[in-house]
Amino acid sequence: MGVFKAAAVQMRSGTSVERNVADMARLIREAAAQGATYIQTPEMTGALLRDKEARAASFVPEDRDLVVSAARRLASELGVFVHIGSTAILRADGKIANRALLFSPEGKTLASYDKIHMFDVDLDNGESWRESAAYEPGTQAVVSEVNGAKLGFAVCYDLRFPQLFRSEALAGAEVLTVPAAFTRQTGEAHWHVLLRARAIENGAFVVAAAQGGLHEDGRETYGHSLIIDPWGRILAEADHDEPGVVVAEIDPSQSAAVRRKVPNLKNAREFSVRVAGSDVKLRGAAS
CA 65 → CA 17, 47, 153, distances in Å? Predict the structure, then answer.
């Protein structure tokens, strides 16, 4: 299991898929030029569209998606792993997935992950989102392999559900991924602390490529793409919301070392919760 460089690509995706793909390609090339062999883009790399009709018109199956074909081509051309943080994909059943995809240096699809937790929230200042109105949630956690390291998948709002990351860590993931389009409001409050917590509690690296800035559809995202080590230290950060690339070295043996120091994955015990004299099964609790 060797040391490798990981890159988090920060974008400001707009309403044009073609323009976003061009921006993605430029930034992936920049990351590869800096020596990164694993390159992650943010959630909704393909487009950020609030208009329902325009959004629906942009949905196509995976085999016709411009982001997918460009990422596959870039992975093969540059000889790197390309992880599309997510893009909207039309499924065979007619439903829409918020889907992450990982491509090998040969351009082959190694893994795909459909975002499980939908961002249905009502924030301060009238900011409200209903992701479940547009997308079908996934039902399966995914762990794949990059440069000999096991890599666990998540997308954005998944970050607030630690049981997902714990399940992937127990399955051997040394690198956890959180490509995102965090709103500015939630990002300023929670982005850094949640990402560092997921790294610390699982003894794993975290790579989180983010959307940033004021988008064409009117939304504003936080940026601050991060790469964090298993001790919770920030190795690289885009300390702004502008498009760009951050790169850091990933040594999977550091994950094993931290897990030996603080073996909380191994020391975890099963327990029940007793409320008013009755045992209660908690929704979403890790088994």
Answer: 9, 12, 21
- What's phi and psi for 166, nearest 5 deg? -65, -40
CA 269 to chain centre: 29
Mean of pLDDT values over 214-234: 96
Q: Please give the order of strands across the beta sheet that includes 205-208.
A: 143-146, 149-152, 175-177, 205-208, 226-228, 234-237
User: Any idea what the CATH number is for the domain that residue 221 is in?
Assistant: 3.60.110.10
Look at residue 276 and tell me if it is in a domain.
no
- Location of structure tokens 């051309």: 77
Does residue 286 fall inside a structural domain? no
Give the pLDDT confidence score for residue 80 in this predicted structure.
98
What confidence category does residue 1 fall into, taking pLDDT thresholds of 50, 70 and 90?
A: low
Does residue 103 sit within a domain? yes
> Virtual CA dihedral for 17, 109, 144, 253, nearest 10 degrees?
-90
End-to-end CA distance of the chain: 29
Residues 185, 113: Cα–Cα separation, whole Å: 26
Annotated catalytic residues are 43, 115, 156
Model pTM above 0.85: yes
CB-count exposure of residue 273 (10 Å: 0-12, 13-18, 19+): exposed
The phi, psi pair for 257, rounded to 5°, reads -65, -45
Q: Are strands 109-114 and 96-103 parallel, antiparallel or unpaired?
A: antiparallel
Please, what is the Cα angle at 12 between 83 and 158, to 5 degrees?
50
pLDDT in tens, 238-276: 999 999 999 999 999 999 999 999 999 999 988 888 888
Domain count, the chain: 1
244 occurs within a structural domain: yes
